[in-house]
Amino acid sequence: MAELNTCHAVEHMICEIWSGYFGHDVSPYDDFYDLGGDSLGMIDIVGRARELGLPVRSSVALRNPSPARLAESLTIGVDAEPVVVPALYADTSVPEPVAALPVPIVATGAGEPLYVVHSDSHVETEREAIASWGSPRPVKGFSHAGGPIGELADRLLAALRQDQPDEPYRLAGFGHGAVLAFELARRLRRLGATVPLLALINPPIVGTPGAATRESLRQRRLAMLTRRFGLTGEESVEEIHARMRRAGWYSHVGARDLAALQVSFVETELAARDYEPAGYDGPTVLFQDGTDSPAWRRAIADLESHRLDHELESPTAVIRDAELALVMRKALQ
Fold first, then answer.
1. 187-211 b/e with 16+ CB inside 10 Å = b?
2. DSSP-H helix ranges across the chain
């Protein structure tokens, strides 16, 4: 199999092995034990994986009972010498932070739309998931390239009120976009506007100033991308982008923006860690993947929290989560 050293390819191989074992298609996020497997069956599967060239131990497979988690543990979670990838260091400029006007995701429906602030990396996957929610009202999405939280929220506020001058406003955000959606909701409430729904989907941990430096975050980000996509440092930016697109990353941008977006990701991550959410009194739905961020609970008075136990570095599982879709469909009624 080509690019067997990439997380995406390893995940695909594990899905094929499990599908053969169970006799039906298996998704990357299916749990081995929920499918009816047991520890002896996992040992058989590990043997098959080794025959196909996948270096996996039974103890690792037993601790990571979904193809996605096992693939990450075999690629992202391994210790390896750092690799310098010139194509991801080539550009230090930052693209335009926020799209001028939101893009329609669900064009039909009645009532005020839901406005979504996308993550930086999985815009197309988020749009596909949103379209599957069955929203009874229109949905529109803002893209952003990262940057200071306050500056981005101000830009979003101006664009939002240009698109919809009157309240109420329904908001949601994915990843770093959840921080922006929260800050946008706070600005709207200060202006006296009604915000009947705020959904924070897989937001980052916030309120940890000084926990990391710009350079340490940059190195961690590039190391993760290097391991996830099996980079050796010899690939062109076009080759890297092609691998990422096949795995659902950065499908909404061109290859020429890829290096600059890593710079803006680091700036937004640093800003999010320094960000301390202030009190918010509007109804809020929070979806987190295993990791709890106490700062969100302290800041939000009217909170409905959902813990999703995928425990993955990639946000794809959360974006496509069936429980999230069900909750959002009900919330949008």
1. bbbeeebebebbbbbbbbbbbeeee
2. 7-22, 39-51, 58-63, 67-75, 86-89, 123-132, 149-163, 176-190, 214-228, 237-246, 258-274, 294-299, 316-319, 322-331
- Chain region(s) in the chain for CATH 1.10.1200.10: 7-75
CATH of 80-333, one of 2.40.50.140, 3.40.50.1820, 3.30.70.100, 3.40.50.720: 3.40.50.1820
Cα–Cα distance for residue pair 109/46, rounded to 1 Å: 48
* Both tokens assigned to 74: 């075999």
- Tokens standing for 195? 């915000």
Its pTM stands at 0.90
**Other C-beta atoms within 10 Å of 64: how many?**
21
195-252 pLDDT, tens digit each: 999 999 999 989 888 888 988 998 889 888 998 998 989 999 999 999 999 989 999 9
pLDDT at 1 over 50: no
**pLDDT at position 80 over 70:** no
In the chain, CATH 3.40.50.1820 covers 80-333
CATH no. for 7-75: 1.10.1200.10
Q: Which residues face 286 on adjacent strands?
A: 200, 305
Specify whether the CB–CB gap between 274 and 294 falls below 8 A. no
- What's the start-to-end Cα distance of the chain, in Å? 45
Q: For residue 295, what are its two tokens? A: 């700062």
Give the pLDDT of residue 208. 86
